[in-house]
Amino acid sequence: FALIQSRTPKSEMSRVFAALNIQNSGFIVAAAGVGLAAHAAGVTIPQLFLGLAIANALVAIYIFTIVPEFLMRFLSWLMVRALYRLRPHGIEANVPDEGAALIVCNHVSYLDALILSASIPRPVRFVMYYRIFNIPVMSWIFRTAKTIPIAGAKEDRALMLRAFDEIDAALAEGELVCIFPEGALTRDGQISAFKSGVDKILERRPVPVVPMALRGMWTSMWSRRDSRLGRMRVPRRFRATIEVVAAPAVEGSAASAERLEAQVRALRGDHA
Hints:
The protein is built from twelve helices and seven strands. The chain is α/β, with parallel strands linked by helices. Helix 3 packs across helix 4 and helix 4 crosses helix 6.
């Protein structure tokens, strides 16, 4: 129901759900008939429930092959909730329930995309540096999650232009796209200057921009703090508290890299 509701235009919602209810009623009657027939054939109640469980598992796997981004979001949610005490602030109020929007956030650790995916109730298309995107095995996960690879103009200009085209196409389809405008992980825990990529995106399609900030990830084992100091990468604290903070959306026509950088800095404050 949630999937169909999210994918159906509002103008067709009532007709789609009316047809869906008729279809569901047919399946209920058919299931009752199959259950009665199986019981008459000597199938026990535990066996019947086992068969239903197997059927549900097969259907779930099929659904996940159709919409793999939902499975990726669910796995991200499980992983992040297992590793951290996640405290989102202002996300439900400021991230639009539907329609296109660009999300900008500071970049602290290798888990940032997973944390945001676990915090935002809608699927998000993340823009990722192409060398990380092409890591063996991980590449399959990134492709399944519909991540957009990008490169610098000096490294691969064609890939960079293709990434901007894909970002624009995703926004045109009413999707959420998240970028980390610093362009790289922080090396000292501070926010670096936002690059001009965000301005290029908004010049083509001035969608609302939601500033967000990650707090508490600099001291995690997934940031560059340990490698910078030459220490072993070991967790300092199990299930540490981290925060994801969102501010009200800025109109795309009024947004700029400098303004968004200032807002993200204010959101993060001293909570590196």
